[in-house]
Amino acid sequence: MELIQEDIPKKHKLFIVLSTLFITNALIAEVIGAKILSVEKLLNIPAMAFPFINGTTLNLEMSVGVLIWPIVFILSDIINEYFGRSGVKRISIIGAGMIAYSFFIIYIATEAPPANFWIDNNAIDPQGNSLNINYAYSTIFRQGW
Questions:
Q1: Please, are residues 99 and 30 in contact by the beta-carbon 8 Å criterion?
Q2: Are the beta carbons of 126 and 119 closer than 8 angstroms?
Q3: Whole-number Å distance between alpha carbons of 18 and 102
Q4: What is the pLDDT of residues 113-124, one digit of tens each?
Q5: How many CB atoms lie within 10 A of CB 29?
Q6: I need a surface site. Which of 7, 37, 42, 112 has the fewest CB within 10 A?
Q7: Residue 47 CA to chain centroid, in angstroms?
Q8: How far is CA 38 from CA 8, 33, 47, 70, 92, in A?
Q9: What is the Cα–Cα distance from 145 to 133, expressed in whole angstroms?
Q10: Tell me: the pLDDT tens digits for 33-81?
């Protein structure tokens, strides 16, 4: 069984596959991007603590979205190679629209009133601490904005 119809030209199939990968990776990068990654901890090295403005310091900390955005850029280069600037422009507009749509749906989901049993079943975390699951859910999903 073929995922994409046989009567579709190979070039169109390629565009569909590349576009799907592009949009999926861009969307994932936006949703996970709120978490800040410590490169120093990842590499098990001491904090860099570069001097910065007003006595503050900078460390090697960044959004985890940077881990996946290079895939998006490589896909846009491949799309440009096969389909030109118009192909990249088309998929970039569609991707931005899908990200906006996703954030709209996330907004609706986080504003929806929670069921009492869901709040009650998730009132305590595994360590026995009190937990406001609806607040946690909203906070996590809305960070990408």
A1: yes
A2: no
A3: 20
A4: 999 999 999 999
A5: 21
A6: 7
A7: 26
A8: 45, 13, 9, 18, 29
A9: 20
A10: 888 999 999 999 998 888 999 989 899 999 998 999 999 999 999 999 9
